[in-house]
Amino acid sequence: MSFSDQVRACIRETINDHDRRFACLYGMLLYGRTVTRTEIVLKSESDIFDAVFPVLMKTVFGASVPLSMENRPRKDGSVLHIYRITGEDAVTTIRHRFHIHEERRIDMRNLPTNSIGMFLGGVFLICGTMTDPSKDYHLEFSVPNEVLGRDLCDILYSVGVHPGCIRRRYGYAVYLKVSEEIGDLLTFMGAQKCTLGLIDVQIDKEMKNRINRVNNCDMANIDKVISASERQCRDIRVIMEHDGMKDLTEDLRELAELRLDNPHLSLSELSELLNKPIGRSGVNHRFRRLAQIAETYRRVDTCDE
User: Are the C-beta atoms of residues 212 and 205 closer than 8 Å to each other?
Assistant: First the structure.
């Protein structure tokens, strides 16, 4: 089951009283693809929509509004569910009941405060989708026209989320891309289980990102150790080429020999191998002294040339 269908399934479970049924059906009808004076057409590939819509129509309108249905198979194996309400009398009954006028707008008279979430759930059932959060954070409503898009944005703003709206080929898309706001909206629409699933994905992503950051940091540190070791070994070889090891103090000669034997070790690890262990800063200071001695030999070579 896709994540979108999981959301739809959760919404379906919360349509459990008269006000919620009324608000959910209103959202589905208002945001259906076609609403004219003589015809209302709703289309969806969702089996959950197919199970919910006729039940809500019968609950709210009984037998007064005839409903025709067609299942149209697609090449990809999915099925497009098409519901039609035809005839001016039947359409007028619905439009009067829900105050749906020529210019479709959200009419708040249909939405008591406690029904707004269920109305948005109905809109999601007919035109909403959500990407699997393990891939991307994206919840979208594909709405029929700009007016309904603006109205939907306004009502989403009123419940504390901040959608974007863009024009698409066959209408407008109202979308959310912030995971926290998507979670808030899912909860508001009655899909709390999906919110928990979203949070689990967020936690998993954050853990993976943290591990990657640590690994990247470790790799960077390893690169630094290798780069520093190569530089130190070059300095020591310059000293050896000039037969300068015998002139080094005992502590510098000991460290130089340890470095050549252990090019992969960090300063802290080298310090532990010294006859008289010292701190990391002390080891670093001795390598600076070796670098200065090597540089002296290099300058002599340059002058000889």
Answer: no
Question: Among the listed ranges 30-44, 85-99, 242-256, which one has the minimum average pLDDT value?
Answer: 242-256
Half-sphere exposure (Cβ direction) of 120: Cα atoms closer than 13 Å: 29
Among 171, 134, 111, CA closest to 6: 134
> Tens digits of per-residue pLDDT, 191-228?
989 988 888 888 887 787 777 777 777 777 777 888 88
Q: pLDDT tens for residues 32-46? A: 988 989 999 999 999
Query: How far apart are the C-alpha atoms of 107 and 96, rounded to whole Å?
Result: 12
Residue 82 per-residue DSSP state:
E
Residue showing tokens 């709210």: 60
DSSP β-ladder status, 39-44 and 139-143? unpaired
DSSP string, 225-273: HHHHHHHHHHHHHHHHHTT-GGGS-HHHHHHHHHHHH-TT--HHHHHHH
Q: For residue 297, which amino acid is it?
A: Y
Model pTM score: 0.70
Burial class (CB in 10 A: 0-12, 13-18, 19+), 139: buried
Q: Could you tell me where the beta strands, DSSP code E, fall in the chain?
A: 34-35, 39-44, 68-73, 79-86, 128-130, 139-143, 164-168, 171-176
CATH, range 3-201? 3.10.28.10
CA 133 to chain centre: 5
Q: Provide the 10 A C-beta neighbour count for residue 204.
A: 12
Domain parsing of the chain, residue ranges: 3-201, 211-304
